[in-house]
Write a structure and sequence with these properties.
The complex is a heterodimer. In chain A, strand 7 and strand 8 form a beta hairpin. The radius of gyration of chain A is 26 Å and the shape is globular. The longest helix of chain A is centred in the N-terminal third of the chain and has 39 residues. In chain A, the strands form three sheets. Chain A has a five-stranded antiparallel beta sheet, sandwiched between helices. In chain A, strands 1-3-5 form a three-stranded parallel beta sheet. A two-stranded parallel ribbon of chain A has the order 2-4. Chain A is built from ten helices and ten strands. Chain A is 45% helix and 22% strand. Chain B is mainly α. Helix content of chain B is 53%, strand content 10%. Chain B is built from six helices and three strands; from the N terminus they run E-H-H-E-H-H-E-H-H. In chain B, strands 1-2-3 form a three-stranded parallel beta sheet. The longest helix of chain B is centred in the first third of the chain and has 18 residues. Classes of the chains: A alpha/beta, B mainly alpha. At the A-B interface, helix 5, helix 6 and helix 10 of A face helix 3 and helix 6 of B.
Chain lengths: 330, 116
């Protein structure tokens, strides 16, 4: 006797039912996932993060607070569709490096929304407005926009000598910087852009982004270069990471390795003939005063390049910031 | 004598070391202008005069090293020094700087440091 379930017709019908069930369950799984994703993204987009700036924004003299605040902004903006509100009302002083740093962090996340309020102090608020990015912010009474700074950005990591020359020219036109100091600034910017490009080539493409700016005020020009990538120390390769570990264990820390970089003892391309001039030249210019008071902050270290002494800072910044003043005419 | 004026014949804003890094590079200047002109001068038994004045804000070290040091790595130090004449009226120390790049063309940074 032949059972019903052994007939080819029954097997076919069972296969069709199974297929339908599979399709239905797959369909609903996909729909469930899509629904979950949508609600999740709606939740993200709807969420607004509010961050309060510290009273003094200065990468080098108030490094912990400033680096901590800007990296929080950068991280908060990193979420897809994020809305971040910056409360700058209590800011009583801001340096050009902090402005460029904050601007670089915000512009690095073009798909997120940033709003907030400007500092209560109209003079400080004017500085934010002059930077050209904070136009959507609520203004404190009396704040006026005034073109007193220039800020530029290029995200494709290329070395652009025209851009470096334009910044140097802007400093010449709007401050009492000497011609030699403006030339040194232009050349230094090219070297820093080139280092950023090299780090990008060595690491994941697209990780390195930079912003350069010059701020002219009271006859003085201040240059800032921000690299939002992996930073100097991480770009040195695995052999140097072992050295860094050794230095840290022996109590010297990453400051010693950074000093070695500026002394020319560590070049990212050490085994290549003719390389390793860039950052040692930058240090030499800092020593002559043409790049006056040149300071650098990267990872957990910060300090003055001419002293080649770098101290540890508790805030971790995964990039590099340089700031220097132009040498002024007497 | 063959004359090259970098600002006029190549760029008045010299840029990075390599062409892949950005425009106006030292490598581009060497390959497109300096090397062909030097070989041409060598065949004619002449020298190449390189005029350095006229650029907007000077020369980055990487540009000079790649252009002139790179040329010495390709052709040999003696050959380059023999056929190259460098002129800078606005910044005379630049000539010595370039000669230094040519002479130390085959040294790595650690070898330069060891030499002091």
């Amino acid at each position: 006797m032949k059972h019903r379930w052994s007939t080819p017709e029954f097997k076919d019908s069972q296969r069709r039912v199974g297929l339908k069930r599979a399709k239905r369950s797959k369909g609903s799984r996909v729909k469930r996932r899509a629904r979950r994703r949508l609600s999740h993204s709606l939740g993200r987009a709807g969420r607004q993060v509010e961050l309060t700036a510290p009273p003094a924004l200065d990468v080098f003299d108030h490094g912990e607070d400033t680096i901590g605040f800007v990296t929080s902004v950068h991280q908060a903006l990193g979420r897809s569709g994020a809305k971040v509100r910056l409360d700058l009302s209590n800011v009583t002083s801001v340096t050009s490096d902090a402005l460029v740093f904050l601007k670089a962090a915000i512009q690095d996340r073009p798909h997120s929304t940033v709003g907030g309020n400007l500092p209560k102090d109209p003079v400080i608020a004017e500085k934010f407005i002059a930077s050209g990015f904070f136009k959507g912010f609520e203004r404190a009474p009396g704040a006026r926009a005034k073109a007193m700074g220039l800020m530029v950005r290029k995200s494709d990591r290329q070395v652009l000598s025209e851009l470096a020359a334009d910044l140097a020219q802007f400093a010449l036109d709007n401050s009492s910087i000497t011609a030699a100091s403006a030339a040194a600034a232009s050349k230094a910017l090219i070297e820093l852009m080139k280092n950023t490009f090299r780090h990008a080539s060595a690491s994941t493409p697209g990780e390195e982004r930079w912003m350069a700016g010059v701020y002219c005020e009271d006859g003085r020009a201040t240059f800032t270069f921000v690299d939002l990538g992996i930073g100097i120390l991480k770009s040195l390769g695995p052999r140097r990471h072992l050295k860094l570990l050794g230095l840290t264990l022996s109590g010297f820390g990453p400051g010693r390795l950074l000093a070695d970089v500026f002394l020319g003892k560590v070049a990212a391309s050490q085994k290549l003939a003719g390389h390793g001039f860039g950052l040692t030249w930058v240090r030499a210019m800092a020593e002559t005063g043409l790049l006056a008071d040149l300071r650098v902050a990267t990872h957990f270290v910060a300090g003055r390049v001419s002293d080649v002494a770098f101290r540890d800072v508790s805030a971790r910044f995964p990039g590099t910031i340089y700031r220097w003043r132009g040498q002024s005419e007497p | 004598m063959i004359v090259i004026n970098i600002a006029r014949d190549y760029s008045n804003v010299p840029g990075p070391r390599l062409e892949q890094e950005g425009p106006h590079s030292g490598e581009g200047f060497r390959e497109k202008i300096l090397l062909p002109k030097l070989l041409e001068a060598e065949q004619a038994g002449e020298a190449v005069r390189v005029e350095l004045d006229g650029v907007r804000f000077g020369y980055p070290t990487s540009f000079l090293e790649e252009a002139f040091g790179g040329l010495a790595r390709k052709l040999g130090i003696a050959r380059v020094l023999k056929h190259l004449e460098l002129v800078s009226l606005s910044e005379p120390p630049l000539v010595d700087e370039i000669r230094h790049y040519i002479r130390s063309a085959n040294q790595t940074s650690s070898e330069r440091l060891a030499q002091g």
